[in-house]
Amino acid sequence: MQQQTVPQATPVSFLAANAPDMPVHFFAPAALDARLAEFCAGFDGMVTYAVKANPDEAVIMRLCAGGIGGFDVASPDEIALIRRLCPHAALHYNNPVRSRDEIAFGIAARVDSWSVDDAGELAKLIALGVTDCEIAVRFKLPVGGAAYNFGAKFGAEEGEAVELLRQVAAAGFKPALTFHVGTQCRDPNAYGTYVRAAARIAQAAGVTIARLNVGGGFPSARDGAPVDMQPFFDAIAGAMDAFAQRPALVCEPGRGLVADSHAYAVQVKSLRAGRVYLNDGVYGGLSEFPSMVVPTFRVVAPDGTLRSGVPDPRIVFGPTCDSIDQLPDPLPLPRDLAEGDWIIFAAMGAYLSGVTTRFNGYGDRISVQVDHL
Ligand SMILES: *Cc1c(COP(=O)(O)O)cnc(C)c1O
């Protein structure tokens, strides 16, 4: 990836002045600062960041400089990244499936909190000598509201979670509970339901938990609706009454923290009847498009003028020679669309960096910091 260091005013001013022959990822650090401040002011607990959402060093360093307390990490590489860029931040190793070597790496890095969703994985942590830290039992509920179901992969059922929490407390760890409502969750009640379930699990286990980690899942503006985190914070705070003894709170947003501070510009390489070929697709920065709502976008000509033609649905292909490299639904693109135009997608800070492949020799992009998106 090429890094552009000269700060630019806006994506449009950069594209018009530089005419790059590559997709461009725009980052507005001020927007990230503002969203972090919103979390820190509104969320009544520790704000951490899920590194996998966007591991770009500029993002991690900005969050670290902004005083973020910790990071949700899932692998030795992510642990090493945080230890290098933000050495004093807390590490929450919340991928509940780990190899023995990965566990040893986490112990050496002095991970502060580990999540588990299975008795065998807990036994593995104990056998390898994990001590003196928090262990958070990850549970799941059959709740809707998110764009993507995280419970399909991780999380103990409520009954199993009760048993695991007892084992965690009996083994002398600081007991905690955690969950993930699913990404791009637009329903604040999903958090309330999960918080009340956590209180139920703690009570059934007879364990006073030290912390409750409400996970990520907070929405971005990719669906076009404005984002206001306050109803989510209120739903969480309101449901905490269910606890006889209130645990401290932790959240670990990925998308909700980072998505809206970025935009992504892709260029029209070729136009045919009803078909558009772009310089990036589902193997690159648009990898989320098959599973998520297509982000809001605008189209500009190479000189930066906005295309305003009537929207015409077109089939859109990426640059690789693979027929899967196609957006799932036709995109309503302006009728005056021309070769060389840029489509600038909003809210593209999450699940783009780190997800891009090198398939067919593509995957390069330029990163540019801007004052405004
Ligand atoms: C991916 C992940 C997150 C972040 O999820 P978002 O939907 O991006 O907020 C938080 N916690 C864990 C354990 C995760 O795996």
Question: How would you portray this structure in words?
Answer:
This protein is α/β, with parallel strands linked by helices and 373 residues long. It folds into two domains: 2-26 and 261-369, Lyase, Ornithine Decarboxylase, Chain A, domain 1 (Beta Barrel), CATH 2.40.37; 49-252, Alpha-Beta Barrel (TIM Barrel), CATH 3.20.20.10. The protein has helices at 11-18, 29-42, 57-65, 76-85, 100-108, 119-127, 158-170, 188-205, 230-239, 255-258; strands at residues 2-8, 24-27, 46-50, 70-73, 90-93, 113-116, 134-138, 174-178, 211-213, 248-251, 262-272, 275-278, 297-300, 311-317, 331-334, 342-346, 366-370. The strands form two sheets. Strands 1, 2, 11, 12, 13, 14, 15, 16 and 17 form a nine-stranded mixed β-sheet that branches. β7 (134-138), α7 and β8 (174-178) form a beta-alpha-beta unit. The chain is elongated. The chain starts with a strand and ends with a strand. The model has no long low-confidence stretch (mean pLDDT 95). The structure holds pyridoxal-5'-phosphate. Pyridoxal-5'-phosphate (PLP) is lined by residues 50, 52-53, 72, 94, 180, 183, 215-218, 252-256, 350.
In short:
With 373 residues, this protein is of the alpha/beta class. The chain has helices spanning 11-18, 29-42, 57-65, 76-85, 100-108, 119-127, 158-170, 188-205, 230-239, 255-258; strands at residues 2-8, 24-27, 46-50, 70-73, 90-93, 113-116, 134-138, 174-178, 211-213, 248-251, 262-272, 275-278, 297-300, 311-317, 331-334, 342-346, 366-370.
